[in-house]
Amino acid sequence: MTKYDLARHPTSSTVKMMARLLERITKTNDKRLNKFPKPGSPFVPFYGQSLPTISIDAYLIRILKYCPCSNETFLSLLVYFDRLTASGLRINSYNIHRLLIAGLMVSTKYFSDIFYTNTRYAKVGGIPVPELNALELAFLKANQFELHITVPELERYGDQLLDHYVREQERIHQNTKRFDASAATQCSQETGPFLTFDPNVCPTYRHSWHAGLSIPS
């Protein structure tokens, strides 16, 4: 397994890997019939009635830009989310954004000597201050106010996150190679002495790269 360096790994890379993992989890849980918790569940405050328009990736990048925090803070979310999942939480597209902003705010206050006001977190997270205050308390209660995480545990989660991302990229690379090979086979079929090329059957294949993300102020 690839080793994750808690002190030196670029935080932007950690955020990117987390976004990929959480997007995969939410898409899986979005397929469940029961997307919302039962009344009285401690997780009710985290659920919205409509889906946010900002992606998980863009949301985490926005938080990192306007409320910078460490690898420890981001990785701690995965630990807390695992604990909450063991208590019955199902992370999906209706709750992930509130869980992220509330969890990061709580974690930053616990792990760091430097943190921002709830008003700033609310503005960055796109949530009214009173609601975020309630989410902060709900997050603490859901975790039974137990926020302690050992360094070895954080490192283990970092290793697993990096390993998941590496395997995912390898899988994407293999799928891309198979696609290219299949396209090349279609394009090289002969009719008589010449090769034919039908752009409708074999369009030019291009990798899609995003030059940057526009983060609202």
UniProtKB/TrEMBL annotation:
Q: What Gene3D superfamilies does the entry give?
A: Cyclin-like (1.10.472.10)
InterPro entries (alphabetical): Cyclin-like_sf, Cyclin_PHO80-like
Pfam families attached to this UniProt entry: Cyclin (PF08613)
Question: Which GO-annotated molecular functions does the record name?
Answer: cyclin-dependent protein serine/threonine kinase regulator activity; protein kinase binding
Instruction: Report the coiled-coil segments.
Output: none
According to its record, what are the GO cellular component terms?
A: cyclin-dependent protein kinase holoenzyme complex; nucleus
Q: What is the protein name for this chain?
A: Cyclin-domain-containing protein
Q: Which organism is it from?
A: Hesseltinella vesiculosa
